[in-house]
Amino acid sequence: xxxxxxxxxxxxxxxxxxxxxxxxxxxxxxxxxxxxxxxxxxxxxxxxxxxxxxxxxxxxxxxxxxxxxxxxxxxxxxxxxxxxxxxxxxxxxxxxxxxxxxxxxxxxxxxxxxxxxxxxxxxxxxxxxxxxxxxxxxxxxxxxxxxxxxxxxxxxxxxxxxxxxxxxxxxxxxxxxxxxxxxxxxxxxxxxxxxxxxxxxxxxxxxxxxxx
Length: 212
Known about the structure:
Layout: H1 3-15, E1 19-21, E2 27-28, E3 34-35, E4 37-39, H2 48-65, E5 71-75, H3 78-90, E6 94-97, E7 110-111, E8 119-127, H4 131-142, E9 146-155, H5 159-167, E10 172-177, H6 178-188, H7 196-204
Parallel strand pairs: 5-6, 5-8, 8-9, 9-10
Antiparallel strand pairs: 1-4, 2-3, 6-7
Helix pairs in contact: 1-6, 2-3
């Protein structure tokens, strides 16, 4: 991970309010976890300068990490747009995938065309525990496709995600992460020193944070 790019991405996510921090009142995730952070990287699409920076950084990093890539596959829904932007920048074919088949119409799980044997890099906007992202990797591999790895804009850096990706033999990288983001948030005044302990506690044990 390039430290300059990582810091700049974190600054942009905070600036665009794609990431919101609220250590006192917290957010409720669908999983039931309480969290001091909420991340929706789709917000960055509304800011041309930020969108362009992320597109270039992601495309260049994909070429560096996975030089044999032949097609990008975005994960629905949040990975669709950034995946398409990166594919356009790299002049590569593109498709997107759902974690499970659509429940109506043709019931497709893949939208677009992937040729058998094409080397795939899967695109996500965010890595949390890795569960939904790896469902797409599993599906592609089960259908005979070659997945080189995954790329995303941001990760919370949970150990469980690293464990799941290692078990799946799926290397991945992100442009920025939680630790860098908190550093940049402190510098810019989005959080203060007194809040750092709570933010660190959540990162170390998110499932138990503020559950009592």
